[in-house]
Amino acid sequence: MFKRIAIVTRGEDPSVLQAVDAVLEVLRKRQLDCVIEGLTLASCEARGIAPAAGPGVAETRDLVIAVGGDGTLLRAARLAHPHRVPLLGVNLGRLGFLADLSPAQVSSTLDAILGGAFDFEDRTVLNCEILRGRVPVASAHALNDVVIQRWNMTRLITLHTYVDGRFVHSQRADGMIISTPTGSTAYALSGGGPILSPELPAVVLVPVCPHSLTNRPIVLPHTAVVEIEIGSDHPEEDESRVTCDGNALPSVSAGDRIRVSRHPQTVRLIHPAGHDHFAVLRAKLQWGQGPC
After folding, report:
1. Do 154 and 209 contact (CB within 8 A), yes or no?
2. Active site annotation includes 238
3. pTM
4. Do 144 and 117 lie in a common domain?
5. Distance between CA 251 and CA 157 in Å, rounded?
6. Domain CATH code at residue 33
C-alpha cells in the first residue's frame, strides 16, 4: 500500500537517531524505497539512505513519516499537503496530540500500518492572506492555527473582525487565534478556547488576553471567511505579526487585513487501527483512566 516513504525529522540527538533507526529497520524489512529530510549528509550516508531537502521531498512519495514532536509533524504537513500525501507521526515530544506512535511502538505498529491496518482522518487546513489596500502581499497555510499578535510594543492592538463580510466586533487584545479543530488542543486551548472534535466542520476565534472580559471564543462553520483588520492609535509605531503554525509572515500594521478561509484540500493523518481520539485526550490531558 505504501511503497515510497519520506521520513521528516529535525536534529540529531540520540533519541531522534534511535527512533529514525527503528523506523528504517521496519522499512528495510519490507524493502521499501525511502528518503529522509532533516539529517546531515553524514548521518544519511551512515544509514545508507538518500537525503532529501526542500518543498519537493514528498512529491513522489506515498507516505510521510514525521519523527519528532507536533512541531515536526506540522513541518512535515507543510511538505506533504501540496502533494496530497498522507502523514504519520512518531512522537518524541512532550504532548504529541498529532503524532501517534511512541518509539516503543514503531517495530510492531508501524509494520501493521504499512500492511494496511490503519485508520485515517482528513483534517481541515486554513488558507491565510495578508491584504494591503485589498492587494495580497503574503499567504500561507495552517493545519493548527493562524495567530495575529502584537509584536514591537507593549500596548494592546485593536482588531476589527468581520465574518463573511459582516462586522462582528472591535476589540483591544494581545492578539487573536483562528484555529482549526486540530489546533483546538494547541495555543487556542491555552487561550481558553474549546476543544473541537477533529471531524467537526468548524473553526474557532480565540482572543488572546482581551481587554474586555466579554470577548469570548466564537465557533464558526468551516465555510466562514474571517477578515481581521489591524487598527491602531499609533499607526506610525505599532507593528503586529501573523504566524501560520508558528511560521512568521511579513509584519502587518494599521489598515492591513488578514483574510482566513478554509483551504479546499485537507491533510490526511494516518493512525493505528482502532485509534480513539478521546483516549488520546484522556492520556495527554490527564483526565483519568475511567469510571470507578
Report:
1. no
2. no
3. 0.92
4. no
5. 14
6. 3.40.50.10330
